[in-house]
Design a protein that fits this description.
Blueprint lengths: L7 H9 L6 H20 L2 H17 L10 H20 L6 H14 L4 H19 L3 H12 L4 H8 L3 H28 L1
Helix pairs in contact: 2-3, 2-4, 2-7, 3-4, 4-8, 5-6, 6-9, 7-9, 8-9
Length: about 190
C-alpha cells in the first residue's frame, strides 16, 4: 500500500490498536466534510469547531468499539450526530439565523466570480436555503446535510444515524416538503420585487 493512500478502515483499525499516529490522516481526510456537517447542524461556526475536536476525541476514546471492516465514514458521522444531539440538549438553540449563514453564502458566490447582481442573488438564495434547512427538526436536518452537502448514500446515512434506510428516505421526503413550504412564499415574494 502506498503511504498516504491507506483505506479509512485500515487506518481506524490501527487506531483501534492504540496507534495514535494513524488518527491524523483520518482527521485530515474528514476535516472539511465533517466540519461542514457539524456547522450546518449547529448553526455556529465556533461551536462546530469545538464539536469537531470533541468528535475526534470520542473516536480516540471509543477506538476499541470500532469493528473492522465497518465503514469508518458511517461510524464517524454517527459519533458526530450524537455529539450534535448532545449539544442540542445542552444549548436548546440548534438553529441558524440568516446573518450566520450569509457570510458562507457570500464566500461561495464570490468564488465563482459572478457579477454584482448575480452575486447578490446567489447570496440571498443561499441564505434562504440555509434558513430553510435550519428550521428543520434535527433528524431531518441531519439527513439533508449528510445527503446534499456530504453526498452520502441513504444506506450510509441510515447506518450513521442508527435507523433504517426507509426512515432516512422518509425524513428526506418530509424535509424537502418542509423546505418547499418555507421557501415557496419567500421565493415568490423575492421574484415579485
Amino acid at each position: 500500500m502506498t503511504k498516504g493512500h491507506e483505506p479509512d478502515e485500515w487506518l481506524m483499525g490501527q487506531v483501534a490498536l492504540g496507534k495514535r499516529e494513524y488518527l491524523a490522516p483520518l482527521v485530515r481526510r474528514y476535516a472539511s466534510g465533517l466540519l461542514t456537517y457539524i456547522e450546518r447542524m449547529t448553526g455556529d461556526r465556533h461551536r462546530s469547531e469545538e464539536l469537531f475536536q470533541e468528535v475526534f476525541l470520542a473516536v480516540w476514546v471509543k477506538r476499541r468499539q470500532y469493528r473492522f471492516p465497518r465503514a469508518f465514514r458511517s461510524w464517524l458521522f454517527a459519533i458526530a450526530t450524537n455529539q450534535c444531539r448532545a449539544a442540542f440538549r445542552k444549548s436548546r438553540v440548534p438553529v441558524l439565523t440568516q446573518g450566520e449563514s450569509s457570510h458562507e453564502a457570500a464566500v461561495a458566490a464570490r468564488s465563482n466570480n459572478p457579477g454584482p447582481l448575480e452575486a447578490a442573488i446567489d447570496t440571498e438564495t443561499a441564505t434562504l436555503v440555509a434558513s430553510a434547512v435550519a428550521q428543520l427538526p434535527p433528524q431531518q436536518r441531519s439527513v439533508v446535510v449528510l445527503r446534499v452537502w456530504n453526498g452520502l448514500p441513504y444506506a450510509t446515512i441510515a447506518e450513521a444515524l442508527g435507523c433504517r434506510e426507509s426512515t432516512v428516505r422518509s425524513n428526506m421526503h418530509h424535509a424537502l416538503t418542509g423546505m418547499r413550504k418555507f421557501l415557496e412564499p419567500r421565493m415568490a415574494t423575492r421574484n415579485d420585487q
